[in-house]
Amino acid sequence: MALQETQILEAYRTMRTIREFEERVTAEFEKGGIPGFVHVYDGQEAVATGACMHLTKDDYVGSTHRGHGHCIAKGCDIKGMMAEIMGRATGLCRGKGGSMHIADIDQGMLGANAIVGGAPPLAIGAALSAKTLGTKNLSLSFTGDGGSNQGTVFESMNLAVVLQLPTIFMYENNGYGEHTGAAYAVGCGDIAGRAEAFGMPALRVDGLDFFAVYEAMQEAVDRARSGGGPTAIEASAVRFNGHFIGDPQLYRGEGELDRLRRDSDCLKIFSKRVIGDKLLKKSQLNAIDREVAVLIDSAVEEGFAAPFPAESELLTDVYSNY
Amino acid sequence: MPIKTIRQAINDTLRSEMRRDSTVVIIGEDVAGGAGSDGIDDAAGGVFGVTKGLVGEFGRERVIDTPISEAGFIGMAAGAACTGLRPVVELMFFDFIGVCFDQIYNQMAKFRYMFGGKTDTPIVVRAMVGAGLRAAAQHSNMLHPLVASIPGLKVVMPSNAYDAKGLLLTAIRDNDPVIFLEHKTLYDTSCEVPDEEYLIPFGQAAFTREGSDITIVSMSSMVLRCNEVADKLAAEGIYADVIDLRTVSPIDEGAVLESVEVSGRLVIVDEANERCSMASEISSIVAEKAFHSLRAPIAKVAAPHSPVPFSPSLEDIYVPTAARIEDAVRATLEA
Ligand SMILES: Cc1ncc(C[n+]2csc(CCOP(=O)(O)OP(=O)(O)O)c2C)c(N)n1
Ligand SMILES: [Mg+2]
């Protein structure tokens, strides 16, 4: 199905929002305004956006430690996210979760996850609910190249095949898990091939190309919604930053980062394509850029103005009764 | 005498043991870093640089970077330990024990007993514990009581660089599985660390302050806060024994009981969640074995019964503060 102009605009807005959000989080972190361990997603916007555009609010997404982009693409509130990352009472998780645990079940976001390999089991659980309850909803888990080596991931793939669950395993291969190359850690070098061996169709896409991700997801979503079981997608991607903000990135080759930022920027690739193909005009993109900048500015401003959680919050929500 | 941080003391000790014994190997995620990349080898040396430089001297055969597969590589280290190697395996954040708990509690801990005493399992599992870095609910826990409750495991928690060296030497040479827990807020703390070899036996607490008015028992980073409180009280003429357990399995019961027999007053400070903590364990030991020496109810200062919160405003009150310790000590003195 060809994308409508409004959808293409929406895709650009989501990608730009993620980029702006992450650049701003990085800047505020570096100024000391954001505490904790923060892993930003910029560089990989096309994957989250191309994947989540197919989902409704009632489909579920399980994410990773690098989860901001997935949350934004799934429709989480930007201001609530920013406040959460700042540890404020107005955050999506009332300041108790932080960057690595942003979640919003109401938006179908099962959470970022600080345990690598944490999401796939949870996501197939959401798929089991959908299948058992007959809702036609599906689930999508994001996993990195590093996370793809986790036992929980292998077990989840097998379970999804055995139970024919409506779920999609999205592998974002950005070449590194922390400071180690995927070329070393993924023994067979082929994450999609491993998924195939578990007995599900696997697609390989250029994760820098929003349209390619969108198309692959279309196939996977159609299969899941029609009772055809799981699909895996391996999207090649690039990480524009270190593993965490402040990482000296000694594992990078000479000039690697500059080259990536110059030649492998999914937003530049998107803009060039939509303008070149006359799908959108530059002025439309510029207008979105301005709106997004205003939104992020106000998210930061409101976040800093918001209070920290009160002491009494320490012992709330431990159980359903307190 | 050289002054060293805990980070340096551990790094030096690993290096000297690897030189001394060629069966000692290091295993873990990014213990070197840079594998399969265009950048430099040794790009990481662990999350906080504790194993930095070791791959340069010992090579990748003995400083083994693993994929992110904790159940697999912790189990691999356990299997290697009972077949000729002496692995020091790093679990990074101790919270990740959730992924590989079976390998620790069902496998390595039980080999000696289940196999009728026919095997040694000389493995050290190093991991980081503790809150304070805003690392949130899945990277900040103190799970030492969990492992301390398991027969077959020894559990070590140094509070300073001197002890870190002596305890790590003992851990590596020990023929049982040892869980070696490093508090992530302590890596940059330093003290004098002699160059010569010394082994600190397990089950031998240290008195970091001495006094007969009250006994304060603690471990790991909480020892620093207890010392701070003891120093403040000393200025008022109130003197406390501060006992650093150093190993929470085995526990130096003798040191605790002897001190309580003199002071009659006990405060236990533990960063773990209070329920089933070392604080409750020590409290039960003293209640059973030194009941008649007590002149006041035992007081526990521990973390509340909640996960570790992210927000600074909550994390700062989650972790026992010097003020909370001081309040508990004063209340116990007055009781
Ligand atoms: C169970 C577990 N093991 C290790 C870690 C530490 N860790 C956090 S992110 C990460 C690398 C993940 O790499 P990848 O899956 O490729 O995701 P990316 O960071 O590239 O997005 C590691 C080792 C963790 N958080 N959880
Ligand atoms: Mg990766």
Concise summary:
With 322 residues, chain A is of the alpha/beta class. Chain A has twelve helices and seven strands.
Which short descriptors sum up this protein?
heterodimer, A: alpha/beta, Rossmann fold, five-stranded parallel sheet, two-stranded antiparallel sheet, 7 strands, B: 335 residues, alpha/beta, seven-stranded mixed sheet, binds magnesium ion
Task: Describe what this molecule looks like in 3D.
The complex is a heterodimer of chains A (322) and B (335). In chain A, the strands form two sheets. Chain A has a five-stranded parallel β-sheet with strand order 1-2-3-7-6, with helices on both faces. A two-stranded antiparallel sheet of chain A has the order 4-5. Chain A is built from twelve helices and seven strands. Chain A has one domain (5-305): Thiamin diphosphate (ThDP)-binding fold, Pyr/PP domains (Rossmann fold). Chain A is of the alpha/beta class. Helices cover 45% and strands 10% of the residues of chain A. Chain B is of the alpha/beta class and 335 residues long. Chain B folds into two domains: 3-192, Thiamin diphosphate (ThDP)-binding fold, Pyr/PP domains (Rossmann fold, 3-Layer(aba) Sandwich); 206-334, 3-Layer(aba) Sandwich (Rossmann fold). Chain B has twelve helices and 14 strands. Chain B has helices spanning 6-20, 54-58, 70-81, 97-108, 111-114, 144-148, 161-173, 222-234, 253-263, 278-289, 312-318, 322-334; strands at 3-5, 24-28, 63-65, 86-93, 124-129, 154-156, 178-183, 190-192, 206-209, 214-218, 240-244, 247-249, 266-273, 299-303. Chain B has a seven-stranded mixed β-sheet. In chain B, strands 9-11-10-13-14 form a five-stranded mixed β-sheet, with helices on both faces. In chain B, helix 3 packs parallel to helix 4 (97-108), helix 8 packs across helix 12 and helix 9 crosses helix 10 (278-289). Chain B is globular and about 65 Å long. At the A-B interface, strand 4, strand 5 and helix 7 of A face helix 3 and helix 11 of B. Thiamine diphosphate (TPP) sits between chains A (64-66, 114-116, 144-147, 174, 176-178, 239, 243) and B (29, 68, 70, 92, 96, 99).
